[in-house]
Specification:
There is one protein chain. With about 140 residues, the protein is α+β, with helices and mostly antiparallel strands. It has one domain: Arc Repressor Mutant, subunit A (Orthogonal Bundle), CATH 1.10.10. Helix content is about 65%, strand content about 15%. The protein has 6 helices and 3 strands; from the N terminus they run H-H-E-H-H-E-E-H-H. The longest helix is centred in the last third of the chain and has 21 residues. The chain is globular, with a radius of gyration of 17 Å. It starts with a helix and ends in a 6-residue tail after the last helix. InterPro entries: ArsR-like_HTH, HTH_MarR-typ, MarR/SlyA-like, WH-like_DNA-bd_sf, WH_DNA-bd_sf. This is MarR family transcriptional regulator.
Length: about 140
Amino acid sequence: MFLLLNAQLARDLSRDSGLSEPDYDVLSSLASSPDHRRRVSELAARMLWSRSRLSHHLGRMEQRGLVAREECATDGRGAVVTLTDEGQQTIEKAAPLHVESVRRYFVDLLTSEQIDVFAEIGEHVVDHLKRSGDSGRS
């Protein structure tokens, strides 16, 4: 189920907005952040990515005008990634279409009871993974 659902959502996201799943994750994370910015290290941890992997991805997003990187004012070694106006417009256009896709292929297929059970199972698995201490970072 996960692979099929994820593949369908990724196809829809790419077709509807030209974004990859990681693009969408970065943009939505920044859009929901105060001042539309996050430290690169914080964003990497949130995405369960290495800083190096995220840095390469952010470089590609910068070339497309979706994000910008700045030095961290409080830590000369750190960097902050910010959402550009283009990135804000892109996520505002993509989000409703992505939500519609998630609803069409998952949420609307389930009863409210099934969603409650699924949420309970998800929380149980996430709690177990957090306790195991293996973040699975790549």
